[in-house]
Structures are given as structure tokens and as C-alpha cells.
Amino acid sequence: MLNEYLKKILAARVYDVAIESPLHTATFLSERLGNQIWFKREDKQPVYSFKIRGAYNKVVQLSEEEKAKGVIAASAGNHAQGLALAAKELGIRAVIVMPRTTPEIKVMSVRARGARVVLHGDSFDEAFKHSQKLVEDKGYTYVHPYDDPDTIAGQGTIGMEILRQLKHSPDAIFVPVGGGGLAAGVAAYVKALAPDVKVIAVESTESACLAAAKEAGSRVILPEVGIFADGVAVAQIGENTWEICKDYIDEVITCTPDEICAAIKDTFDDTRAVLEPAGALSVAGLKKYVEREQCSDQNLVAILSGANVNFDRLRYISEVAEIGEGREVILAVTIPEQPGSFQRFCSLLGRRPITEFNYRYGDDNEAQIYVGVKVDAEPGSRAALVDELREDGYPVLDISDDEIAKYHIRHMVGGHAPAHVSDERVYRFEFPERPGALLNFLKKLGKRFNISLFHYRNHGAAYGRVLVGLQIDDDKREQLHGYLEELGYRYWDETENPAYQLFLR
User: Fold this and answer.
1) What number does CATH give the domain 417-503?
2) 285 φ, ψ (degrees, to nearest 5)
């Protein structure tokens, strides 16, 4: 199998449109981690992503009959732009089916490259089904974003460039994984020529389909997929990509959204480029690998796969980057409600900077404060601060990893519910970012339940994070859950969440 892919990669036609992306020395990160770290800058491609390689290599090898039919794909991101540019360069008609929730900047980018955009459905699955219907009705040639040997070969040219650009073989190459096209292509080339080089896949914890397949020994479909790292938000590893990845990927590392945000900041510090979450995933995995292995003086390469990030997501990314790096801790602290108590608390923190402080008067005896504090990134710094405060007599709860605390409470601290709102239950939702989503929610609830709390904040993703308080009797809870299941929005009961109990209950 490797020899077949090696031939395909060596013969791949990518440089009509793609560049040989530079291998950038990550000076700051190398010094911090004690290894020689290199960034493979696929964010510098004409479409700001590696996807142009595989798309062009596939399209250029279509038969004249297939080209004449025009090409089509379902995509909300980088493949759409890659295919649009490939088709434009070859003078072929291109149709891209995108969910209606796709950010306008991506729709505009695809149209700017000459493709016709069809907006259909609210999810990728709905867009994909519609694209297949158009294939049947119109006879278009479908170009898969990852699960095709020619596409895999196009992406494999990245591995070829890495081995050629480095004077010595790297110790490990870190590759982001969604459907697996990039990982399969890089692994096929590298393992054929330099089998001792580790090829390490990195996935988001919200869409770790390769890790699940490795554990099960076969391809599996994830029951649900988070979309923070939308470029790798795939529920099942590809069939062709799995045949390579199962044997030639050395290991899979998974990273949380917080860790990905920290990696975006790291890459910005070294390159002044702002990556999309999927684009920085490999850096997040590299950092976890170095911490786990305690290795030094190794040559480690991270593939920066893309930079198609929505501008309005940057606010969220910057908010949680320090938490993901372990440089900020979010605490719920009880201090005496008396003059001078805040000053005494700050004095105890010493020279640690306070990044956020939220408080509102609650009663005459105790004050509940929400405070962010910068700490060293060294392991144990968070725990040491908490222990120090507790030893000085402060009741403290570390809520740095609490979803409610990070995304909602920090913007809502300002008062508890009045005493008569004793029947409040709190739910966390993911609403589709589309017109009418809130109205649909309200219509489904009708006038059955009173809304006692509501917080929504746009994070530039396809789904909005919403916190809702409802006044509901215990005997009506099952009825409510029935309505919510009909609604189809993902939700979690957060009534017992400690951050909610401390600041808003």
C-alpha cells in the first residue's frame, strides 16, 4: 500500500496552484519547551489552508467527461475554497453546497473564486445529502474532501516537503485529524521513506473519531461532534484514510478547546499569524507530547493546517487562551463582607496579577467573588494558589474548567435569584446560529414555563452557547424534557452546577 501511495504522491500535481510552504522555526516555543520546534506553514497557501493540494490533485486527474459535468462538494470550510480555486484554474464549473449556518466570510470566499454556492440545511449532513441529490439530478462529479486516494496523495506532498526541507529527519511530525486525509497522506510518505520518524495524529476531544476507531479496532461513528474546531469536526474517519492511519499513525493525542486556544496564542507569538482552531491543533498536541515525555533537544514539526478563522471568534479565543495554557485560574472565593477585606485578599495574592474580578453585594456577612488570577504555567501552580488561600482561611472553589463559569457566569455576576424563585432549574444549550433559533425555542416552550434567567453570547461558531433558567415544578420536569427532545437542541441540566449555586441561585 505504501509504495502505491508513494508513487501517487511523487506524481501529484499540486504546484500549479499550491506553494511549497515554508518550514518556520518557532523560536519562542522552542526555547520554552527545550526542543527545536518547526511550524509547517500551510496557512500561507492561496486559500490559507492545505486543502488546495488534495482538491487540485483530484480535479486535475478527472477524465474530460467528468470535468465537463462540473464538480460539486458539500463543505462549510477549507475544502470548499480549495475546490473552488482548483476548478477556476482548470476552467471547470464548480458547485459548493454549504449549510445556511456557514459564516458569511466563507460563503464570500467561495463565490470570489468563481464557484456557485448553494445554501441548504442547518448542518453538514443536510448539506451533504442535498449535494448527493444534485449529483443524481444534474450529473455533477463529486469531489470528496478527504476520503479519496488522489486527494490523500495531494496532501501527502506536505510530508515530502518536510523531509526535504529539514537537514535531519524530524523525531516526530504532528498532524491534525478530521477525516484523516492529511494524516494519511503524510504518514504514507514519511513511513515509506523514514519509518523511524513518528507521525502523531492530534484530534479535538470534541471530534476524536480516529482515537475512537483505534480503540475499537475499526471505524466508528461518534454519537455527537463538537464544532469549536470546525475544520476537524468529523464523526467518522474516512474508509481510505483509515486503512493507512490504523497501521502507520504512531499514536493519537486529543486536546481540549482550551488547549487549542492556548496553541493559537503560541503560534501567534512566534509567527504573528492567527490560526483557525483546527490549524493550531497540531501545536496543542505537540505541547502535550513534550510535557508527557519530558523530552528535550528533539526536532519536532507541527503542521499549521489553516487560518480561515472568523474575526468574531477571536474574542472567545483570547478569553480562554490563558486558561488553556494553565496561566490563569478562575476562582470562586468567599470573603468577609466588611471594609478592607478586598484589600487583604489582594495582598495575599502578592505579585500575581488579577485578570478579572466580579462581585455584587449579597448579604451583610459574606461576599462571593469571581476572580481570575494569573499564575505560572508550571504544573501545580493552580493547586498551590488554592491551597495558599485555604490555609489563610478563605473558602475557595477552582472553577477554571467549569463550562458555566467560563462562558456565562463571568458575564452575569450581579445578583442572586429572589427567595420566591425556589423552583428554578438551569439548563445549558447549544443553539444553532441561525435566524429564528431563539423564537423556535420559545414557541416550543409556549407559555408552560416561566423563564427566570437567560444568557447568550456569540462566539463566532455555528452554535451559540445559551444558559436558561426555568421555573418548573418537579412533576413537570419530564414533560419539559420531552419538549426539549422534540426541539432537537443539545442541552445539559446544570441546576447543581457549583458556579451557578454560588453566584446566581
Assistant:
1) 3.40.1020.10
2) -70, -40
